[in-house]
UniProtKB/TrEMBL annotation:
Residues 741-769 are annotated as: Disordered. Pfam families: FAD_binding_3, Oxidored_FMN. This is Bifunctional salicylyl-CoA 5-hydroxylase/oxidoreductase. Residues 397-730 form the NADH:flavin oxidoreductase/NADH oxidase N-terminal domain. It comes from the Bacteria. It comes from Streptomyces xiangluensis. PANTHER family: BLR3436 PROTEIN, NADPH DEHYDROGENASE C23G7.10C-RELATED. Residues 16-333 form the FAD-binding domain.
Length: 769
């Protein structure tokens, strides 16, 4: 436009940057920041000598290397010349080795990595101060424009500003020691040793043509029983070499500042304060079993450098850095937590079939799944499928499963979901369409919402019941539709009583909020309101317990006449029977309160009453909350005891959920976050389980089943998003066998529609050479 004036942006100031810590993350951040602006004054403080380093080899992913290649080709070329690469993972257990290929690893010595970064920093003009303690952070903050705290898991910077960063440090249950061997493993090797003191494991991988990293790990109690607590490093190294002599070929191990330690997970609520920012292990840690520490630190450096380049101010850059990295780190930490807990609980899986054990180990973090493992190594995956019992061409989710006289055609369950759409407890057309659509959608078992055993046992005025003949007639209409129009689908009823969580609004009007009017009296194990604004329930007397038990049995008789294929007793989520099980909601001093044995008494009495009237050939399951997600509440150990008790009384499977017992709970959400509880119950007790909780894909279902972590998978929200989720899972996997069938009117839609093209994201930071 004529007369327009283009105003140039103000010149960017050249930052003075202090980097505390000379590990890979700090050094790479210094190099990138200097390369982006050579006028920057950048100083790195490292209290150790240049060649001092803990550990031996470092593994980097192709994704991380791609970021390095785009951001600094000089560093990438130097690293590429040093890398040892391999594709295989060997898993050795009980003298059987299984090899899975196609994984793609690259590693080099940690010392060599530091040398490369030292050279790059010096060539760019970064000042490196070794054997020098960094000045106090407050002084650095005053003297420099930016302070990058890359001072590791024991970060003094983080502790100096703990009131701002608010770190949470969790120490885990295994001890490990970082060693090396003077020969290269042919693959990433996991070896299990079952000793007189307990199970131990070796993690090993090559990092040079003549050397491998070797990490030996075991539970704390095994470490103590084996006498390692009293052994010095030399003795520990020699003993580890003897225990894993087969893996090492009789060779010795060596140490480098090695010591037995317990892994600590570091999480910070904030990563920056004024001009101080945390990077790498100072900000977050992730267990070594997924090889992520150096990877995360390097990726932090890339993101920090890019944000400083892109944002108009330092404050905006540090905010953008944390916003970009926090979800990535959280995802990695969830995967690392799943991996480390798998190794903590390794003893649960020792008796699994050999190939299933190997598959379980490979998929422990949930990052590697059945589908991508099949792409990496089809031969190995097919051998695991055959051992599991999959007919040729049949995904694990489409194999049948038997509970008493009921054979489910596949392993998919539509999880119970409250619809809050009944009138006076009567399910109507909505329920017919809702449950009928999901039965037509291919699931092996469709569960009703919690069906209440009395009007006073409803959660909301919209909850369905089974305490009148009219309600039973309406349910019969639904079961008849499922059996006639969706042959092969089973339908189950979940019976429950709201307890202290009753007389509340419909979910979309205010979940767990008390009704404005029309309230009914509540009963519970103890007179404790769910939330301060909720009604205080009456503590049940023995006579009232008997009345409620009869309400359950009457509902079960009606359920039988309705033609339901399975009955589930709801003992979870803080409702009446769950309220008896949790020590946080059961404060009784009679025979129904106190120790877990007493708290189990009433739920077991109800279960026994139901089992007595429910047909012998039809299965019964029990849903439990395996943890309250609160201090002093139900624990995973309690959940195992609870599951065993119900199984001893005739439960055919345990439906393993968690939480919703207390309003102030603090769940650890994430993909498949509840499945470890089902996994533990199944593999510690041998009781069939139904896993539930953020299982979102058919790949998750196949992975969990094939690893032996569950027998059935219950999905809720995916079935709200897509009523035909199971049919679509079959179509996407090219499966057309007996485990699922398209209704005749829908067969024309059984092929997946074509989709448009999507382009991959561009590299995070690209610089010229």
């Amino acid at each position: 436009m004529a007369g327009a004036v283009t105003v140039a942006p103000p010149p960017r100031e050249h930052l003075r940057v202090a980097v505390v810590g000379g590990g890979p993350g700090g050094l790479y951040a210094a190099a990138l920041l200097k390369r982006l602006d050579p006028a920057r004054e950048i100083t790195v403080w490292e209290r150790n000598a240049p060649d001092d380093t803990f550990g031996f080899g470092v593994v980097l992913s192709d994704e991380t290397l791609g970021g390095i290649q785009h951001a600094d080709p000089v560093v990438y070329e130097a690293l590429r010349d040093e890398f040892v690469r391999w594709d295989d993972i060997d898993i050795v257990h009980r003298n059987i080795r299984h090899t899975s290929g196609g994984h793609g690893f690259a590693a080099l010595g940690r010392r060599r990595l530091l040398e490369i970064l030292h050279e790059r920093c010096r060539s760019l003009g970064v000042e490196l101060r070794f054997r020098t303690q960094a000045p106090d952070t407050a002084r650095l903050s005053e003297s420099y424009d930016l302070v990058v705290a890359a001072d590791g898991v024991h970060s003094a910077t983080r502790e100096a500003y703990a009131q701002v960063f608010r770190p949470r440090v969790t120490t885990h249950r295994c001890r490990y020691i970082w060693l090396a061997a003077d020969f290269p493993f042919e693959a990433f090797r996991f070896e299990i040793a079952e000793t007189e003191h307990g199970v131990m494991q070796l993690h090993g991988y090559p990092y040079a043509a003549d050397a491998s990293t070797v990490i030996v790990e075991m539970r704390e109690e095994v470490w103590e029983a084996a006498g390692f607590a009293e052994s010095d490093v030399r003795e520990s190294v020699e003993r580890c070499a003897k225990i894993f002599a087969d893996a090492l070929g009789g060779r010795a191990l060596r140490s480098n500042k090695s010591a037995w330690t317990a892994f600590r997970t570091v999480v910070n609520e904030r990563w920056s304060h004024d001009n101080v920012v945390l990077l790498g292990d100072a900000a977050h840690t992730a267990h070594f079993s997924i090889g992520s520490g150096t990877k995360l630190a390097v990726e932090d450096a890339l993101a920090l450098a890019a944000c400083l380049e892109e944002q108009p101010s330092l404050d905006a850059a540090l905010t953008a850095y944390e916003e970009e990295r926090r979800p990535v780190v959280a995802s990695t930490q969830r995967a690392a937590r799943a991996s480390l807990e798998w190794f903590e609980n390794l003893g649960l899986y020792l008796d699994q079939p050999a190939r299933q054990f190997a598959f379980n180990l490979l998929t422990r973090s949930r990052r590697v799944t059945h589908d991508n493992l099949r792409l990496r190594d089809a031969r190995f995956t097919e051998s695991v499928e055959r051992e599991f019992g999959c007919p040729p061409g049949t995904p694990p989710m489409f194999t049948p499963f038997r509970l008493r006289g009921l054979t489910l055609r596949n392993r998919v369950v539509v999880s119970p979901m409250d619809m809050y759409s009944a009138v006076d407890g009567v399910p109507g057309d909505f329920h017919l369409v809702h449950l009928g659509a999901r039965a037509l959608g291919g699931a092996g078992l469709v569960m009703t919402e919690m069906v209440c055993v009395s009007a006073e046992g409803r959660i909301t005025p919209g909850c369905a019941g089974l305490y009148t003949g009219q309600q039973a007639d309406s349910w019969r209409r639904i079961t008849d539709f499922v059996h006639a129009q969706a042959p092969g689908a089973a339908i189950g009823v979940q019976l429950g009583h709201s307890g202290r969580k009753g007389s509340t609004k419909l979910m979309w009007e205010g979940i767990d909020e008390p009704l404005e009017e029309g309230n009914w009296p509540l009963v519970a194990a103890s007179p404790l309101p769910y939330k301060p604004r909720n009604q205080t329930p009456h503590e049940l007397t023995r006579a009232q317990l008997a009345d409620i038990r009869e309400q359950f049995t009457s509902a079960a008789r009606r359920a039988d006449r309705c033609g339901f294929d399975l009955l589930e007793l709801h003992c979870a989520h803080g409702y009446l029977l769950s309220g008896f099980l949790s020590p946080l909601t059961n404060r009784r001093t009679d025979a129904y309160g106190g120790p877990l044995e007493n708290r189990l008494r009433f739920p077991l009495e109800v279960f026994d009453a139901l089992r007595a009237v429910w047909p012998e050939d039809r299965p019964m399951t029990v849903r439990i909350s395996a943890t309250d997600w609160a201090d002093g509440g139900t624990t995973a150990d309690d959940a195992v005891t609870i599951a065993r008790a119900f199984a001893a009384h005739g439960a055919d499977a345990i439906d393993v959920s968690t939480g919703q017992v207390l309003a102030e709970e603090q769940p650890e959400y994430g993909r498949s976050y509840q499945t470890p509880y089902a996994d533990r119950i199944r593999n510690e007790t041998g009781i069939p389980v139904i896993a539930v909780g953020a299982i979102s894909s058919w790949d998750d279902v196949n992975s969990l089943l094939l690893a032996g972590r569950t027998d059935l998978c219950a999905l809720a929200r995916p079935h709200l998003y897509d009523p035909h989720w199971t049919l679509h899972a079959a179509a996407e996997q090219g499966y057309t066998g007996p485990g699922v069938s398209w209704p005749a009117p829908y067969r024309a839609g059984s092929r997946r529609p074509q989709t448009g093209r999507t382009d991959a994201p561009k590299p995070r930071l690209t610089l010229g050479s």
